[in-house]
Design a protein that fits this description.
This protein has 148 residues and is an all-alpha fold. It has helices at residues 4-15, 21-48, 53-73, 77-84, 91-105, 111-118, 123-147. It is 79% helix and 0% strand.
Length: 148
C-alpha cells in the first residue's frame, strides 16, 4: 500500500524535467572562466594606467560589484544566470546580485524598513557564516602554528 509520501515522490519523479547536467557544467565553466578573464583584463588595464597593485585589486572588485548590481537592476543578470547557472556565482558577482535583488524586491516597503532592513536577507547568512568559519580557521591555524 502506497503512502501519500511515496505517491508524491513517484509523481515528482515521473513529471520532473531532467536536468542537462553536462551542458550546465560546460556553460558554468565557460561563463565563470569568461568572468575571470574579464577580471584579469581589468587588472591589466588598471595596472597599465599606473595604479598601484593593491588599489587595482580593489578597483577590479568594485567594478565587478557595480556591473553585477547594474545588470541586476535592469533585469539582465537573471537572464545571464539562467543561461550560465553556477558560472555567475563567482563570489563577488553573486554576492552583489543577491543584495541588489533583495533591495529591489522590498523597495515597496520603503527605504528604511524595506530596502535597508531586508537587502541582506540573502547575503547576511553568507557574511555571518563566512566570518565565523574564517575565525574558526584562524584559530585552528594559530593552534597548529603554536604546536609545530
Amino acid at each position: 500500500m502506497n503512502t501519500d509520501k511515496e505517491t508524491y515522490k513517484k509523481y515528482v519523479k515521473d513529471h520532473a524535467q531532467k536536468s542537462p547536467t553536462l551542458k550546465n557544467c560546460v556553460y558554468a565553466f565557460l561563463v565563470g572562466g569568461f568572468l575571470c578573464a574579464c577580471a584579469e583584463g581589468l587588472f591589466t588595464l588598471y595596472m597599465s594606467l599606473g595604479i598601484s597593485e593593491q588599489t587595482t585589486r580593489t578597483l577590479v572588485s568594485v567594478t565587478f560589484i557595480f556591473i553585477a548590481g547594474l545588470l541586476t537592476g535592469i533585469g539582465v543578470f537573471d537572464d545571464i544566470a539562467r543561461f550560465a547557472g553556477a558560472g555567475t556565482l563567482v563570489p563577488i558577482t553573486g554576492f552583489a546580485n543577491s543584495i541588489v535583488a533583495s533591495a529591489i524586491d522590498d523597495k515597496s516597503e520603503g527605504f528604511i524598513l524595506g530596502v535597508g532592513a531586508k537587502m541582506f536577507t540573502v547575503a547576511g547568512p553568507v557574511i555571518v557564516y563566512g566570518t565565523l568559519s574564517s575565525a574558526i580557521y584562524g584559530v585552528i591555524y594559530w593552534i597548529c602554528g603554536v604546536l609545530s
